[in-house]
Design goal:
The chain is α+β, with helices and mostly antiparallel strands and 347 residues long. It is built from ten helices and 14 strands. A hairpin with a 4-residue loop joins strand 13 and strand 14.
């Protein structure tokens, strides 16, 4: 046996067959959600994506487990944290899923909504609590040089040096939130440009890993579960990603935490086994499995790929799969042919 070929007994559960099926999972979720795009029905669009993702996952021969999902079991009837998915036989695989990332974007047919997931070997994804996370994503050239503990001003100077671009040529993505008022002012003071987004920071984080995307950095606070999915993609891309949990409601500045306290959140983290709430996590810690895969399929048009297009005889999806199994990024345009189709255009 070739020394570089794993034996059947220690082969990773993440293989090319699983990668193809994972692609189909996000495609089906995107199609289901896109049918409701622009109708102002964010909850219904999310539910449709969840059901489609769960159904396709159930057809995969695996012992799958949701480690990041739609919430706790009592809050989410499907794809809840701890739910088992797949046929129940075969390899064990952990999943972090966001069936409709950017529900508001989908509901109002705005750019950037997509169906996403990350997969890894058992125990290979950080079990992110339902918290917020300070994030920093940057291109591979700046990996290990920018640092979330540095100021925005310092990191923009480092980015400028690493990329050979002046500050006023850099575009920094920041979620449009009240908590980022000071951050945005500091970034603009360096001369860098701000690209505000209303939701959906996963695609923005990943875009930092591709030259020519026009996105050079993601800064600011977003949801922690999406941070793990972003980390999986950026680890496979070789890009920079760091995350630090946010537990102080005064920092998060979100209405969902209006009745919570800093002390209560710290107690919750302790119960989850997180002894250092201020720890800065690198991408390889948030997605630590031997093999990690990211898959995303556009619901609406976005930075990296188009949204779902419905035609008379087919439905078209645009997707991206990133894997460290074979160090590849696959941009995939798929034509889903309808029954009785008469004519399929080339594009």
């Amino acid at each position: 046996m070739d020394l570089h070929t794993p034996s059947p007994h220690n082969r990773s559960p993440v293989d090319q067959t699983l990668i193809q099926e994972i692609l189909e999972v996000v495609e089906q979720a995107a199609i289901a959600s896109a049918k409701l795009s622009g109708k102002g029905l964010k909850n219904e669009a999310d539910a449709a994506a969840v059901e489609a993702m769960r159904k396709r996952m159930g057809q995969i021969q695996m012992q799958g487990r949701i480690v990041i999902g739609e919430g706790e079991r009592d809050e989410a009837p499907m794809l809840y944290i701890g739910e088992e998915v797949g046929s129940g036989t075969g390899p064990g695989v952990d999943f972090a899923v966001d069936p409709c990332e950017g529900t508001n974007l989908c509901a109002f047919s705005q750019r950037g909504s997509m169906a996403v997931l990350a997969a890894s070997d058992r125990g290979g994804l950080f079990n992110a609590p339902d918290f917020y996370m300070k994030k920093l994503a940057a291109p591979p050239a700046a990996k290990g040089k920018v640092d979330i503990r540095k100021s925005a001003t310092e990191n923009i100077k480092i980015l400028s040096d690493c990329l050979g671009l002046s500050a006023d040529e850099l575009t920094i993505v920041v979620m449009d939130r009240a908590r980022h008022k000071d951050l945005i002012a500091e970034i603009r003071a360096t001369g860098a440009r701000i690209q505000p987004i209303s939701d959906g920071d996963v695609q923005a984080a990943i875009a930092c890993g591709f030259a020519g995307s026009g996105t050079h950095c993601l800064m600011g606070i977003g949801a922690a579960p999406e941070g793990v999915i972003s980390a999986a993609a950026m680890r496979a891309l070789g890009g920079h990603f760091q995350g630090q949990l946010v537990y102080d409601p005064a920092v998060a500045q979100t209405k969902e935490w209006a009745d919570l306290t800093k002390e209560g959140n710290l107690a919750r983290l302790a119960e989850m086994g997180i002894s250092d709430p201020d720890k800065v996590y690198e991408a390889a810690e948030l997605a630590c499995g031997q093999h990690v895969v990211f898959a995303g399929s556009g619901i609406t048009d976005g930075l990296l790929f188009d949204g779902v297009k419905f035609e008379q005889d087919c439905t078209r999806t645009s997707s991206l799969v990133i894997s460290n199994l074979d160090n590849t990024c696959r941009f995939t345009n798929t034509v889903h042919i309808k029954d009785g189709a008469q004519s399929i255009a080339l594009s």
